[in-house]
Amino acid sequence: MRNQPGVARLSNPPGGMSLRQFFQWLSGAAVAMIPLYFIIAIVATLVYASGFQNFGWSFFSTNWNPNPNDPSVAAYGWFDFAVGSAITSAIALALAMVLSLGLAVCIVSFLPPFLSRLAAPVTDMLAGIPSVVYGIWGYVILAPYFSKVIDPWMVGTLGFLPGFNATPTQYAGGVGLILAIFILTIMVVPITTALVRDSLRSIPKELEEAGLALGATRWETMRRVKIPFIQRSIFSAGLLGFGRAIGETVAVFMVIGNEVTLPTSIFGGSTTMATLLVSQMDSAFTYPLLLKALVEIALVLMVISLSVNAIGLRLLGRKTVTGPGGIE
Amino acid sequence: MEVRGPEHLLELPGGTVPSPSDLQVVRSVMSGLPPRARGMVSYPSSSEPRSGSVGVTSPAPSSPSTGAPHPKASQPAGSPGQGGDRADWKCPNCSAVLPKIGADGYVTCSFCHAVFTTGQPTVAPASALSEMMAGELALSIQGLSVLAGSKALVQDINLNVASNKVTAIIGPSGCGKTTLLRALNRMTELSGLKVRGQVLYGGRNIYGAGIDAVRVRRRIGMVFQRPTVFPSSIFENVAFGLRIDHEPEDVVERTVITSLKRAGIWDEVKDELDRPALTLSGGQQQRLCIARALAVSPKVLLMDEPTSSLDPIATQKVEDMIFELKQHYTVVIVTHNMQQAARVADLTAFLFQGKLVEFGLTKQIFESPREKLTENYITGRFG
Amino acid sequence: MSGSVNRPAFAPASVADDLSARGFGRATRRILFDKWIGRLLPLLFIVVVFPILDMIWWIAQNALPTMTWSTLTTPLYGDVGGLYGAILGTTYLAGLALAICGVLGIFGGMYTAEYASPRTATFARLFGNILAGTPAIVIGYTGYFLLVLYTGWGTSIAAGAITLSVFMLPWVFRTTDLAFLSVPPTLREASLGLGATHRQYLFRVGFPVAFPRILTGIFIALAIGVGETAPLIFTAGWQLAPATSLTQGTSYLTGLIWTYFDEPANLGHLLALSFQAAFILFVIVIGLNVVVQIIGARYRRRLKGLFA
After folding, report:
1. B277 touching A, CB under 8 A?
2. Domain A79-326: which CATH class?
3. For chain A: N or C, fewer Cβ within 10 A?
4. Looking at this predicted complex, what is its ipTM?
5. Do B123 and C4 touch (CB under 8 A)?
6. Beta carbons of B212 and C19 less than 8 Å apart
7. Rounded CA separation A173/B148 (Å)
């Protein structure tokens, strides 16, 4: 992909084909490249819709003042939301990676075969549950529990750490960063687990047996032979999980509290870039500049997910990734 | 083909200085490569000076130039099968129950190596085989069956493995030789196979209660068909087994060097121990794997067709090395290459359809097999 | 007699070897550590199993007591009524989207696996996977501008379904591609070797063998289409009355939850409806996933039987 991506560059038709063959090839390649057209269409539409509005450097500031009485002081700095996105995705991803490494290791090496066969579909199924179902579960059922039990407990035990201190009014609703992180974590775990698990399974069996035949235990074989063998895949699983986490909108919107400020603690409400796109769309109809700002934020989100996914997939170096339902 | 001298052996801790006659043996094996023709097999002369005269049951070798079937061992008088058709043979010496094969001649008890005729249960006088087995035993396989579900891959094997000897297991593909080998250090567990019977190591059943597979595998190492180097440096590959044991650095270093020397690869890699092991050639990788197995100081080394993916020159190096390994280790080698078995093994077991058909001195198995099946296999009628 | 044979005798050195996991040696510690890892790691499954069970439990508890047959058959008017309009809307949206992405995805996947040059195939797969990772909300925005505003359709089932199909496409594409790749090459060589043309092979041999897996892709896409919200928020509109034409907006199950999840308590009926919608979604999605697993397991067994 050193050059501009485009069908003609991707695969040159072999020389000496007739015009008819060439067009056949072209139409076939055209079918194969439909995802690419969609990606191009998405980027082009967003670029066009943004009207090439230049917000200057204030676009990167923390100053978000989209619909003031005096339009001249309107400001569209999305730094706060970038922070919200970064905190939720990064922490959720870190937790998810630890969990999914453990789960994948357990499924591949430590569970008896019949449980291992059962465990994989169950984790995959978790990836298939609609995000809106996670959202309503988080908002209606978990949020009160968090505000009454989890949040006070965490403030009590971890309150001395920066970012973990809050007054009861600040977590009264239960919604906030911590709940969003929790929901995001269990949403990302199945995806990263499946990726790590498949990488572990793709390791040649001979290598594992070699480790065991040397008198290593299952854990030592895992730790010193298999994990080093799939380092790259683990990293790319992290990237792909990050792409999912940062783009997740609906479930996060329902539990994050949607406060348009920098959060003071991990219990406070916040907004991510993705949830901003939803929460501000209503007012955007009356403020054309706000709409353009949102479109540009959407573009930023698109670029982030595009590059993260592209790097992750190239590192993974496999034909496919596992998705909900455990298709490989 | 360069044959390495014995010089480097002198500096091995615990390594015995080879006697001149041993050196002679190494050389003669190397120079006397067998002819390629089927049925024309030459043998290492190793067994001869040790086991003395060939026992009474061994006939003269057949003429290698004809390639014709070997003449049968002296046919016993008396009609076979008198002891009832249904029952298995029972060894008159040790009472082991043997599968009913070899109805028309001598039967070798694969457990105690007594030879008896099927008609009259009389024990033959001391054979070359029993002399070869006179030393210590490394392993004793007793009534071993390996089951995949209800299907027996390996059935009721009785076999002893003599210490500091090379025992080859031959047989057509799919006969269960690899399965049998993997059962010897409990690798069968990994593929969910069930094991019946016993494998005695040091007098104790490795499948017994309270015995841990991890420890068994430390004592009974294994080398696989294809080289399986880990994606790390040469040094770290060999050090693997020591690192997991948290051995001190100087011990690790010393052992790695010794192991590399014993595996005969030291001279080739001594200047680049930090090189990624995957950059080595196939033959070097395989010898590295053998060195890695040696580094955890096993007593027995199981080799599953260790040269099947190697070219002839690399194969020769590995065979050369196996020959030297005998001094410190007991080697059990599975091979589909009969000439290889003839070259490296002192003792040979022939497996067919999961059953042990015949076990004996390599020379005897190849020159004068007692069983028709063995003979057919050796002469290339099947397999 | 017995003088001539040797009873088994073991090397004295080896007698000292302890093969058990007793004592306090290094090896014992290693083995015990491994055992405890093996016991503790499965506890992580609580993290996976607990949310599912908790979700099922609470959603069922909030949904089922007030759920009757009429919930499924009456449309919603204001704050009374049932889920009929939403179920119908979801059916339209997911069905239409599936039709679109099914055709494109199956042909695309087939071409990628069977005809494309390795380079084209690599890039097609890469872009397919990138599209699968694109945030749904971004696709929703694009759909809003391109289909709702620029075409002048307004928020409508058509706009929603097309937007949704973009999100579903990679799954069909990818599974079809893999389905054809997983057809054993021996089968392909055999049929081509018997003089079949590539097209004959593809439709007589390849497609029937690959079909179960393609079906799993379609089911997964369907599950995603039924469960997705973000691409529809700005494209499918919102209309409580059951839709009668593709140019109308519609209500749909995920949208219903999205709209009413934070309704105040005095509109408890709407919250209950949200839970009922969530319950139905749950059942559909889990059901489709189970079907996919069953098909997948059967397919693997069949392939095994064919080539073992």
Report:
1. no
2. mainly alpha
3. N
4. 0.86
5. yes
6. yes
7. 59
